[in-house]
């Protein structure tokens, strides 16, 4: 193997993998890293943290505060059962002693080791992964934090990247600031369209670098609500292998799938079955939609070199995700076990399915004839194409369908209904008549009234 053109040093104990069994060679990943990432130096103190755990070590290393001056002595939380519809009992879970000490103290950049192990086991359970394949998990302050660090680690000014389009509005400011060349890959009710990606790649200009990565949201995409079908996933994986790009699989809605057909496997799971080669998928999961958004906890799973680069960024930015949030979740997960966790997420999916069904009824009641939509099979979003009134259309644009931003500011907000204008889900901020509507928080009365208002504004 050729010597890599740089060395990436990391906190000992979390760095170089011992096995090269399944993934692409480490040098391939190293060559994908941005100049910024390659030039990052390990944080001097964090780099030495793992030596504190060596038997007999007396550590005078870090500025860790002495917990005896902290005000917290114990914490008790009441938690619901994993399916409150069947069992409405509450359980007291307390945090004290060593658990509380760990929660209150600085910890490893990659996360609480027990929680990392739990999520690693979950990955094996859900995605058919094995422990010694060369991937690992790191925990961040929500998947937003991990996505930010990942794009910074991989993307260079001028690089070409593919974005599923429309895309998560929260990712656009990240990639736009990096000055990369964004190519939007359209999606429809069946998710991202690999045929359009294939035709771009087949006709790729000889003098232009190929795309480095694809960013996609495979379940209940934000904002389109669409779930990518199995056959499209397979085609995307085939293209990733043929044209050597990474897939950033942003999957906060994985556990909120409620479609009628069995849930398609993740890219992370499928890759091992179809490509005969592992290591082009970096997954992003989140506790935000299933446990609590305010905890700010997510996790990234993928090739060690890339996850190491995320951690190296973390070790000089936010240092780690909140120790208290991690311990609260860990305490809950110890109590539930994987089975309880999955019972809980199944309950969440069922909750959103029922909300989707109800919302669909009111869409039919109020928006029929003035809008078009496809019901989502996961998550909490409808992507609705509004048939805007003539006053919202430009006379100087042929066949103009209108601008949902104008509709929002001139009609919807004054009319007491708030939706997200579609333009913020496109890198070019294009004029578009679609809006994203989230039904997660609405009770039946608000669905009825909110959609009635929208319908009557469209009919004005
Ligand atoms: C597609 C997508 N990715 C990432 C995030 C950020 O999630 P987190 O709360 O884990 O940072 C969201 C939040 O809505 C999202 O919809």
From TrEMBL:
SUPFAM superfamilies, alphabetized: PLP-dependent transferases (SSF53383)
Stored CDD domains: AAT_like
GO BP terms in the entry: alpha-amino acid metabolic process
Domain Aminotransferase class I/classII large: 104-454
Entry keyword annotation includes Transferase: yes
Keywords: Aminotransferase, Pyridoxal phosphate, Transferase
One Pfam family this sequence matches: Aminotran_1_2
Cofactor(s) demanded: pyridoxal 5'-phosphate
InterPro entries associated with the record: Aminotransferase_I/II_large, Class-I_PLP-dep_aminotransf, PyrdxlP-dep_Trfase, PyrdxlP-dep_Trfase_major
Gene3D superfamilies noted in UniProt: Type I PLP-dependent aspartate aminotransferase-like (Major domain)
GO molecular function, one term: transaminase activity
UniProt similarity note: Belongs to the class-I pyridoxal-phosphate-dependent aminotransferase family.
Protein name: TdiD protein
Organism name: Lentinula guzmanii
Source organism phylogeny: Eukaryota, Fungi, Dikarya, Basidiomycota, Agaricomycotina
């Amino acid at each position: 193997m050729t010597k890599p053109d740089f060395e990436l040093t990391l906190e000992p104990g979390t760095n170089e993998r011992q096995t090269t069994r399944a993934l692409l060679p480490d040098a391939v990943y190293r060559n994908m890293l941005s100049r910024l990432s390659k030039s990052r130096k390990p944080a001097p103190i964090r780099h030495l943290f793992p030596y504190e755990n060596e038997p007999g070590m007396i550590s005078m290393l870090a500025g860790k505060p002495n917990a005896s001056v902290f005000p917290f002595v114990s914490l008790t939380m009441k938690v619901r059962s994993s399916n409150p519809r069947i069992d409405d009992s509450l359980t007291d879970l307390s945090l004290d002693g060593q658990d509380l000490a760990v929660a209150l103290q600085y910890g490893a950049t990659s996360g609480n080791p027990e929680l990392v192990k739990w999520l690693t086991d979950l990955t094996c359970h859900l995605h058919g992964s094995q422990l010694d394949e060369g991937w690992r998990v790191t925990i961040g302050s929500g998947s937003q934090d991990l996505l930010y660090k990942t794009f910074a680690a991989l993307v260079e000014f001028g690089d070409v990247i593919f974005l599923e389009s429309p895309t998560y509005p929260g990712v656009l400011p990240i990639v736009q600031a990096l000055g990369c060349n964004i190519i939007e890959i359209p999606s429809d009710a069946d998710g991202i369209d690999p045929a359009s990606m294939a035709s771009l790649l087949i006709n790729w200009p000889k003098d232009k670098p190929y795309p480095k990565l694809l960013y996609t949201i495979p379940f209940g995409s934000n904002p389109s609500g669409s779930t990518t079908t199995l056959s499209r996933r397979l085609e995307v994986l085939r293209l990733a292998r043929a044209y050597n790009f990474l897939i950033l699989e942003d999957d906060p809605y994985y556990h909120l799938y409620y479609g009628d057909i069995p849930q398609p496997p993740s890219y992370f799971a499928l890759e091992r079955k179809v490509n005969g080669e592992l290591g082009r998928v970096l997954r992003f999961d989140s506790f935000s939609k299933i446990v609590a958004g305010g905890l700010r906890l997510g996790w990234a799973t993928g090739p060690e070199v890339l996850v190491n680069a995320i951690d190296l960024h973390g070790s000089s930015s936010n240092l780690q995700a909140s120790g208290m949030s991690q311990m609260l979740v860990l305490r809950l997960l110890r109590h539930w076990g994987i089975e309880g966790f999955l019972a809980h997420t199944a309950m969440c999916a069922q909750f959103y399915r029922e909300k989707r069904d109800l919302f669909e009824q009111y869409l039919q009641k109020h928006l029929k004839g003035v809008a078009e939509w496809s019901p989502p099979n996961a998550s909490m979003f409808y992507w609705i194409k509004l048939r805007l009134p003539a006053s919202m259309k430009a006379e100087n644009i042929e066949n103009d369908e209108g601008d949902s931003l104008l509709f929002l500011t001139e009609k919807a907000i004054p009319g007491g209904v708030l939706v997200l204008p579609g333009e913020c889900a496109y890198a070019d901020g294009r004029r578009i008549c679609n809006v994203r509507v989230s039904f997660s928080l609405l009770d039946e009365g608000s669905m009825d009234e909110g959609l009635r208002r929208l319908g009557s504004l469209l009919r004005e």
